[in-house]
Amino acid sequence: MNPIESSRPLRRIWRARGIAASLALACAVASPASAQKDKMTPIAIPAQPSAITLDTGPLPGATAAESWHSQYGSVFARNVTVATLTPFLPDPARATGAAVVVAPGGGFRTLSMENEGWDVAKALAAKGVAAFVLKYRLNQTPADMPGFERSMKEMFSATAQRPRMDPQQAMAGLAPQIADARAAFALIRRRSGEWHVDKDRIGMVGFSAGAMLTLATTLAGEDAKPAFIGNIYGPLAAVTVPADAPPMFVALAADDPFFANGGIGLIDNWRAAKRPAEFHLFEQGGHGFGMYPKKTTSTGWFDSFVRWIGMHGMLERAH
């Protein structure tokens, strides 16, 4: 389908507001040479007839309405106040029964709906995996584009002087987004018969801020319980790993300006807990490569991810 047609608070995870600022920069800061080419251009909200409104309600206190823009040859949403889930279902002849919730990134201020959402979901569906793009609620930004651009520049200026973020902080600031992810898993399980999905084989993959949400859903999402997770160029700070943590796939470029130099505590912790983990560190790719066709080897992350979920039995048809 084409859309254009708590457990205890976590004690070892990223401070939501500080890390979100860094994450958003990847979507908003360009070099002078590319600034004009990749200028944010407002567009009409695309038709999304397949999008299903989740039952988490409107974002409390929101005043700015949802709006969309184009950039980097792709489309982005911001000021999302009502969460939706869009199914991309595989051909029944090759459906495996596995499913993935896809969480785009954008620093919790915007969502890369095409490059890190729809394009990922379509590629998964082509492999026989049902995919569901989560358009989760976002932190509010100025309604007008010039105001939004100014706010991003101001955030960058403030963040540049910010001390290293403390992974010990709880993530109460992500409560709306975690609620949206939980609602997504609940909806898929509720309609699993209709969508031919195995309730026990629903995973989640996220990009940048979406990767942070994926881990938050894994560790603090209560009943969500992803069967496997993908962290694509997200933070790798140390966390406390539960005994039943799912298999985890991580992909990061060594030249990522945000997360390549912060250590790999997340990987170390997962392995120390004797939970399955696969880590791909690409020489080049920067941040936000997603499904963009690039000459760097980071473009191969998707094929590696598919082989990995296949190794865990997600490409085998249920009998």
Task: Provide a short characterization of the protein structure.
With 319 residues, the protein is an alpha/beta fold. It is 30% helix and 17% strand. α1 packs across α4 and α5 crosses α7.
Structural notes for this entry:
The structure is a single chain. With 319 residues, the chain is of the alpha/beta class. Helices cover 30% and strands 17% of the residues. It contains nine helices and twelve strands. The protein has helices at 16-28, 32-35, 114-126, 145-160, 175-190, 192-195, 209-220, 265-272, 301-311, and strands spanning 41-43, 52-53, 67-71, 74-78, 84-88, 99-103, 110-111, 130-135, 202-207, 229-232, 248-253, 277-282. Strands 2-5-8-6-9-10-11-12 form an eight-stranded mixed beta sheet, sandwiched between helices. A four-stranded antiparallel beta sheet has the order 1-3-4-7. The two termini are 24 Å apart. Residues 1-18, 25-35 and 159-170 have low confidence and may be disordered.
Q: Which stretches are low in confidence, meaning pLDDT under 50 for 5 or more residues running?
A: 1-18, 25-35, 159-170
Spatially, the strands of the biggest sheet line up as 2-5-8-6-9-10-11-12
Largest sheet: 8 strands, mixed
Under CATH, the topology is which? Rossmann fold
Strand content: 15-25%
Order of SSEs, N→C? HHEEEEEEEHEHHHEHEEHEH
**What is the percent of helical residues?**
25-40%
Distance between the termini: 24 Å
**Rg (CA only):** 18 Å
CATH architecture: 3-Layer(aba) Sandwich
Number of helices: 9
Q: In total, how many beta strands?
A: 12
| Average of pLDDT | 87
Query: Which CATH first-tier class would you pick?
Result: Alpha Beta
- What class do helices, strands and sheet pairing give? alpha/beta
CATH superfamily: Alpha/Beta hydrolase fold, catalytic domain
InterPro entries: AB_hydrolase_fold, Dienelactn_hydro, GDXG_lipolytic_enzyme
GO molecular function: hydrolase activity
Keywords: Hydrolase, Signal
Protein name: Alpha/beta hydrolase
